[in-house]
Amino acid sequence: MNEYIFYTAEGLTYPPREDKEVENCQVLGRACGTSEIEARDNLIKQSPWILECGFDIQDTICKQLVTDDLRVMLKKK
64 CB contacts (<8 Å, ≥6 apart)? Predict the structure, then answer.
């Protein structure tokens, strides 16, 4: 099973000096799945707040993480 990280450029964050807004990416979470789609579904099941807060899950950026299992598999090739 592969592990993925999901992040978005939607929304704003606030730095320690709260009178300023910062536009940046926000990590929504990590999830496992046999594919990006399965991992996205698992992420929403584990973290329903993502949709409740209004994030568009279809606009999230998804990247597969390199795990120890993947490193071992790549070394065997």
Answer: 2, 3, 4, 36
pLDDT band at 7 (very low <50, low <70, confident <90, very high): very high
For the segment 23-44, what is each residue's pLDDT rounded down to a tens digit? 889 999 999 999 999 999 999 9
Beta strands in the chain (DSSP E): 2-8, 26-33, 61-64
What are the structure tokens assigned to 61, written together?
């950026």
Contact 31, 46 (CB under 8 A): yes
In this prediction the pTM is 0.78
How many other CB atoms are found less than 10 A from the CB of residue 8? Answer: 16
